[in-house]
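Before surveying the methods themselves, let us examine one representative protein, written as a sequence plus integers encoding its fold.
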Amino acid sequence: MSWKKFSKSLDLKKKRSIFGQSSYYFCSLGHFTQNSTPEILLLSYDEKLSIFNSQGNSLSKFPFSSDVSALVLKDLYDNGENVFISFSYSGEIRVFSKEGEEIWKKTLPSGIITGMVGNLDYDPGLEIVVLLEDRRIFVLNNQGQIMAKYQHPTDILFVDVGKINSSQKKVIVFVDQNNSVNVLDIEESVQKLPTDIKLISGFTTISIYDQTLLAVGDDLNKIHLLDKKGNTFETYQCRAPIQTITAGPLFSPDTDALVILLENNYVEIVNIEVKNPKAYIESETKQVSASTPFPKERKSAKLDFNSELYQKTPSIEARRKREPGFTVGKTNFSNHSQDSLNFRCPECGDYLAKTLIQQILTNKDAYCEECGKELKRKDFKI
């Protein structure tokens, strides 16, 4: 069976849209509730973390530092408990529980543009991947120890992890300013994947029946689903310029959905359906086993790999021992019970951003961003 026969085997349908009165700048997926499917986490410039379900319904909203460039909610220690991992423009990584208890934090030598979590080796524990402002990618284990460093010659725009060249482990995939899609295996090499997209505006990896595809956005507001050879499975047209793309099993454990953050404050939730699952899986198996000769950049001074830390997954108990060099400070995630008393609008109950609280404390003009009520210090028990 030829690949072309299954080139239109996917169907992309918009399920819901989320419109934010605040300006969103980052989106990820994570299990905040006990639901079997993940929730949508959105960070906004008014210092809020908003959480929505797969139907686009608002679940919670909390104050959150605007210094955070990316936020992930994952089972970092493979113990059934999801924890927050936040990354800041000042170069700080923090790991803390959903209750706000900080587990550890670490400051890197440069500001962090974005970060994510994935399994880059063969053990069950997850690794932390960060993109720094100085064109470097760092890989850390769940204790915050640096496993690998990679220095790229040009600016990097987007980073993700996925099973691109292996059915057993994930690798780092990134897009640079030359619109080149690169695969970084921290054990071995860097290689380029073929693509004809000239101006990439968004990027992530998606899983469909254990096959990894690339979701690549362009300057025409289109998202193309590509395989590792650059073949296009399907294209989806967005209503506005693309800011961020993320993916996860919102509707099915077998097929990821797309969550697309657009520049007009809309978030589009797109379900991906396989028209003929049996035929798709059979064709996918042949594609995964196929080998493609890619130009490779072998290990050099640009790729620094610590084999002693590879495949070692320290437990959360070991992390709490607070090894030398690690400090514990106040988490970015505020205590909810205290916020509900002191930092909510007395009119509508909306949580107040840190900047508004500072204005209230100094008796400056302040107004609720949700309902417009004028906020005075006397209205709060401060």
Q: What stands out?
A: Residues 1-6, 285-295, 313-342 have pLDDT under 50 and may be disordered. The longest strand covers residues 10-19. The CA atoms of residues 136 and 151 lie 4 Å apart. The chain has four helices and 26 strands.
